[in-house]
From TrEMBL:
The species this protein was found in: Pedobacter polaris
Name of this chain's protein: Luciferase-like monooxygenase
GO molecular function: oxidoreductase activity, acting on paired donors, with incorporation or reduction of molecular oxygen
Family: To bacterial alkanal monooxygenase alpha and beta chains.
Top-level taxonomy: Bacteria, Pseudomonadati, Bacteroidota, Sphingobacteriia, Sphingobacteriales
Span of domain Luciferase-like: 22-279
Residue stretches in coiled coil: none
GO CC aspect terms: cytosol
Length: 343
């Protein structure tokens, strides 16, 4: 039985810069600033954006620019990428970009790295061109990036200025077991995308922990799980809010993506049985409900996985309801349920 307490859990936010129906990316960015400022007050550790391309509902394609924007509008919360899709870029360019961010906002920038394109194959070809096979170079490119960010690179003929000597903390992201081996071998913290690819989550974190080798950055394995969270004052309210999330994932399953839709009273008539099953498989690691239910579910999840940190992503249509969900989550983890006595 786990001895790890919910109150010891670090909690953070993944913002996919979701564009909701009837709004624009400009509206999305304003709301991200508001969420980040509140998150800072509520004790969230970090605020990350993910690199995606050619997706109508996701406005975080220029990830490093959004990181800088949020860092400028906040004072202490860590801001970073969850993640930068490294095969889309040269390691030198990422070292310069994140080295610049780390110079502007010291000790506040994280660099999470993934190997997927963050988009469809046609768009990936448009991004990568002749470097389409770059995912095979991912382990080598991570090492190159680490070197560019290190002070030891000062005698190299190719240097990242700024960036050199900043040693921006690097994370390895994964949605399968592949990156677990890499994160373990390199001694880096491991963040798993259990918010959309939960099937291999338990196997991946076991591989990571069993094979972890200490590094200059990290002495012990560190696991972050990204999870879907929709908390409201009651279970019924949360389930209704979560229909926006379910509609979004149905768009992923069917290939018919839309902007984030308003919640509905029921998903009946919106999806068929096969679509429903596929969506629920993707949403297996989700925490939806009132505070008491979410607390119970989180405690069970922590006992099973022993994760060090959860990163919540909340696709909620109404901005105030989204803020309320993040505030309730913070209070649940901190053990302060005064705001949430009734579920």
């Amino acid at each position: 039985m786990s001895t790890k307490q919910l109150s010891s859990l670090t909690y953070s936010i993944l913002d996919l810069a979701t564009v909701i129906e009837g709004k624009t990316p400009a509206d999305t960015f304003k709301r991200s600033v508001d969420v980040a400022r509140h998150a800072e007050e509520w004790g969230y550790e970090r605020y990350w954006f993910a690199e995606h391309h050619n997706m109508i509902s996701v406005a975080s394609s220029a990830t490093s620019l959004l990181i800088g924007h949020i860092a400028e509008k906040t004072t202490k919360i860590r801001v970073g990428s969850g993640g930068i899709m490294l095969p889309n870029h040269s390691p030198l360019i990422i070292a310069e970009q994140f080295g610049t961010l780390a110079t502007l906002y010291p000790n506040r920038i994280d660099l999470g790295l993934g190997r997927a394109p963050g988009t469809d194959q046609l768009t990936a070809m448009a991004i990568r061109g002749e470097r389409f096979s770059a995912p095979h170079d991912f382990p080598t490119d991570v090492r190159k990036l680490q070197a560019f960010l290190s002070a030891e690179n000062k005698n190299s003929k190719v240097r990242a200025i700024p960036g050199e000597g900043t040693d921006v903390p690097i994370w390895i992201l994964g949605s399968s077991t592949d990156s677990a081996h890499l994160a373990a071998a390199y001694g880096l913290p491991y963040a798993f995308a259990s918010h959309f690819a939960p099937q291999q989550f338990l196997a991946a974190i076991k591989i990571y922990r069993d094979n972890f080798k200490p590094s200059a950055q990290l002495q012990q394995p560190y696991v972050m799980a990204c999870v879907n969270v929709v908390v409201a004052d009651t279970d019924q309210q949360a389930e209704r809010l979560a229909t926006s999330l379910k509609q979004l994932f149905m768009g992923i399953v069917t290939g018919k993506r839309k902007l984030l839709q308003e919640p509905v009273e029921s998903m009946d008539g919106i999806w068929d049985d096969m679509q429903e099953e596929a969506v629920y498989q993707m949403l297996a690691v989700s925490f939806i409900g009132g505070p008491v239910k979410v607390k119970t579910d989180l405690q069970s999840f922590l006992a099973q996985t022993q994760v060090d940190e959860v990163m919540a992503t909340s696709h909620i249509y109404d901005h105030q309801a989204r803020l309320h969900s993040y505030e309730l989550l913070a209070n649940i983890i901190k053990g302060n349920l005064q705001l949430a006595a009734n579920s």
